[in-house]
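Tokens for chain A. Residues wanted.
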């Protein structure tokens, strides 16, 4: 019997604009890459990866499910975004190794493709209402058939009429530019209180958004049944949920679209289980992914093999990407070439992306990044949701 590979080295790299890469090397020379990060909290995730590496070094990388079980359940205290994100990046890298070792794309290892194209949407901001029309027009001209933007800026706990009108104006402007043949989604970003959401959702229905994302903060799950009943708009959430168990209550409440992040919610292994859970409730998968090329490549592998997939988020040109963009750490941009707003299936082995290792190492050596999300406040000085 041939000797199995062993994991021989695990390294992490901070890279602008706000990403982290993990490189998992085997004694057979096969290398896998992942993206473990919590945006704004990359350093604790890096430390968590180092702790998990103590277990993984010397192990057979092919035993992905067993490693996932140990990494998520092997400690008495479990869960949370930091640990889940560390596991997520390592899980991506293990799938990348397995695919490369077998000479197959990960989607073949997951059961084979069910589609040839993955529809994606482009980000158009929304915090600055005056720039919406031009931004949407530019993305439509680039071939995208769907866009997403913030539905509001900072919003009072009980919205003023002006704040309500500003949200509706955003939606109306986008619908006017796109017409009826293209789609747009609104992200409430947790900025909207449950009472404001109950007020806004019925008013937005006439603009027929594809979905409204994170209509309330994840800690307000109890508000979801009422919002689903009042909305007449598909509701989506999940970027701040990390396990399939956390998705159960929203799905039972009638949420139409789940948005787990492959770099937060336990990696490819858990993402596909969340998708399967959603399918039993008639819900769709639209993975959250405003991150880098490895995270997007991992999402695509799941999307190609998931029957209830809807649409993919991606970060090309997003406003966060000031010091680097989606393709800057990829040797070959071809796997991320958009054709009529969609990404085409490829049969490249593993995750299908070749990371520019030199660029990643150089970015980390230059200081990486210390990105932090903004802190917003109301006029009286109290904390406001960003």
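Reply:
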């Amino acid at each position: 019997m041939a000797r199995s590979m062993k994991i021989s080295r695990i390294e992490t790299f901070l890279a602008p604009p706000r990403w982290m890469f993990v490189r998992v090397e085997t004694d057979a020379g096969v290398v896998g890459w992942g993206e473990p990060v919590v945006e704004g909290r990359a350093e604790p995730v890096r430390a968590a990866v180092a702790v998990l590496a103590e277990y993984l070094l010397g192990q057979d990388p092919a035993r992905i499910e067993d490693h996932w079980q140990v990494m998520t359940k092997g400690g008495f205290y479990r869960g949370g975004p930091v640990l889940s994100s560390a596991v997520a990046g390592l899980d991506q890298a293990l799938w990348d190794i397995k695919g490369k070792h077998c000479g197959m794309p990960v989607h073949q290892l997951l059961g084979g493709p069910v589609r040839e194209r993955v529809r994606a949407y482009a980000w158009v901001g929304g915090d600055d209402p005056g720039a919406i029309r031009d931004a949407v027009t530019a993305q439509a001209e680039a071939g995208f058939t769907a866009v997403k933007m913030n539905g509001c800026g900072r919003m009072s706990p009980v919205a003023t009429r002006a704040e309500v009108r500003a949200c509706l104006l955003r939606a109306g402007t986008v619908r006017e530019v796109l017409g009826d043949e293209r789609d747009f989604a609104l992200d409430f970003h947790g900025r909207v209180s449950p009472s404001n959401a109950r007020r806004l959702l019925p008013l937005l229905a006439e603009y027929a958004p594809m979905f409204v994302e994170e209509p309330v903060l994840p800690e307000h799950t109890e508000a979801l049944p009422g919002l689903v009943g009042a909305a007449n708009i598909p509701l989506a959430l999940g970027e701040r949920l990390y396990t399939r168990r956390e998705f159960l209550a929203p799905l039972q409440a009638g949420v139409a679209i789940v948005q787990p992040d492959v770099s937060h919610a336990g990696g490819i292994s858990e993402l596909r289980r969340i998708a399967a859970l959603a399918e039993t409730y008639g819900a769709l998968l639209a993975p959250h992914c405003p991150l880098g090329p490895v995270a997007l490549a991992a999402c695509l592998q799941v999307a190609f093999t998931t029957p209830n997939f809807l649409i993919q988020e991606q970060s090309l040109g997003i406003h966060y990407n000031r010091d680097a963009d989606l393709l800057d750490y990829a040797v070959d941009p071809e796997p991320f070439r958009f054709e009529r707003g969609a990404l085409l299936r490829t049969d490249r082995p593993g995750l299908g992306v070749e990371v520019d290792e030199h660029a990643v190492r150089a970015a980390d050596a230059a200081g990486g990044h210390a990105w932090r999300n903004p802190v917003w406040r109301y006029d009286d000085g109290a904390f406001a949701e960003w």
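The mean pLDDT is 96. The first strand starts at residue 7 and ends at 15.
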